[in-house]
Batch of 2 targets.
Target 1
Amino acid sequence: MCEQTQKKKVLSCIQPSGIPTLGNYLGALKNWVNMQEEYDCTFAVADLHAITVRQEPAKLRQQIYSMYALFLALGLDPEKSTLFIQSQVPAHSQLAWILSCYTQFGELSRMTQFKDKSARHADNINAGLFAYPALMAADILLYQPDFVPVGHDQKQHLEITRDIATRFNNLYGDVFTVPEPLIGKGGARVMSLADPTKKMSKSDENPNGYISLLDTKEDIIRKFKRAVTDSDAKICVAEGKHGINNLIDIYSVVMGISADETVKKFEGCGYGEFKLSVGEAVADCLSPVRERYNEYISDKKKLEDLSKMGAEKAYYASRKTMSKVMKKVGFVL
Ligand code: TRP
């Protein structure tokens, strides 16, 4: 117990928007799993964020459970960490409203994700899409984390979270821990297998460009065999060799070795053989995840029980911050 209170706190969330890719895994989720020993971790399925764009209810429900099952399958441990579904903890919505009153129209207007998304969903530029960073700030600040692992695309949202926290603290005293970002620590930036100058993305219209965490072994190997490379047939890290650099990165991170070691290991090999080895390494790493996922997703009761337990833990942690905030603002408890 004593040891636990000394651990630094980490929090992160992911939207339930379909099965993540190998890029999400190597860039983020794999680190979450590893951080559980060193930190006191809180991880959530950010379903409140998902409704800023229109969702089909039955599909949303399925995707929420699917993400939670994937958390478990990847090795996030509900005993060690707090794993929950955001909408099951009311404090997120409550604090988001309060924080939105301490967030300026001007700063929200500058968010690049808002600009992108409002361009892509021009028929539904709702207030939630605009106020999204205040909800994300609430997700974070409720749990007083020291660190927030985020990708590059969320860096600006973490910056505004820090600004909101600092502003609030300046008005009311030390209410919130101002969290530090953990950006891409130890992870890889995985590129598309079909166009290695682009980031791997599940919204790629070419399914050969990305590996889904639930792809079968055959699919994974087939996609790696087709991976776009170059024509100089030399396995080394070099500028412009986007495809080969990407495969070297993927292999190294999956095997837990350095890029140099990977290059040495495949010295003199042909591209065909190398691609096959990378495919096999990835398939071996993901097969157990897929098997465990299939077990969890078919055990609805277990998912319900574990997510409720997680929500309860989160509820207790959030309540402390929430009462402090309410008192400071002048509400009656
Ligand atoms: N907005 C993040 C995304 O779209 C998900 C998210 C919601 C999040 N709340 C968070 C990430 C809190 C980190 C911390 O990827």
Target 2
Amino acid sequence: SRDRAIQYFGSFPGSDIPTAVDEQLINEARTRLLGDLVILNTCILLAAGVAGYFLAGRTLTPIKKMVEDQSRFFGDASHELKTPITSLKSEIEIYFRQRKKTIKDADSVIKSNLEEVNRMQNLINNLLTLATLEKVGEKLEFERLELTDILKDAAKSVQSLAKKKKTRIVIRDVKHAQLNGNYNSLVQLFTILFENAIKYSKDNSSVTTSAKMGNFLTVKVEDKGVGIPEEEIEYIFDRFYRVDKSRTSGETGGFGLGLSIAKEIVTLHGGEISVKSSDKGSTFIIDLPVF
Ligand code: ADP
């Protein structure tokens, strides 16, 4: 390029020496620059690699937790379904092994089988509810609602259990309480809370629900039941969590899904659910936005 420059512009005095020095300098600078660039790029690559590793770990942690939760959920659900199926099967097998079969025996097997089938139906309904809430969650249709209507409907759906346990449901101070929400899921929320309040109380008890309007609509469901031990409170909203694990049959034999459904519904409404409890009873407090 130097020769070409001379061709174009002709030689000029003293141009030879500086140009030779320039070329050497340029070569040296080029080599140095190349070396620096290699070091710089290696550093950037290493830094990016290390940062990527940590950031990927951070991003993956919630995903990893979700996968673990899902697999625990499937394990628990399968286990809960296996128990009634095993019991159904063994009762039927024992019946068929009997030499003399009477109608009375058959009746008692069928009656017991029906109980197990009801239990399974209950579990499947709960699982379907959870799946539906997760799926339609974000598109849940909201409308302007009166709290009284929701509470009355929820009380109606636990009527037979309340009657059986001679428990009264008292609805107080809820007039004029309004909110934006999904009617059916809110009825389901209070049905779960009323049902628990009745289930975990002695006979002849009462359940009181009251509301207050402020920045939030605060609804309380208060019972005089067995209460929840302090150390268990943080877990009761988890799926399949039961305080007394031995309660697997009879009227208190739930699956530990009720409160997790309740929490999901409250969360989908942008609210919060909490509980205060002692050995004199429990109060579930629900804060719902009123906008
Ligand atoms: P379950 O089907 O067992 O009732 P939930 O998810 O509705 O499941 O409740 C989880 C656990 O929390 C219950 O097993 C019970 O031990 C406890 N619990 C819920 N509500 C009450 C209540 N009102 N009083 C006392 N304990 C309760």
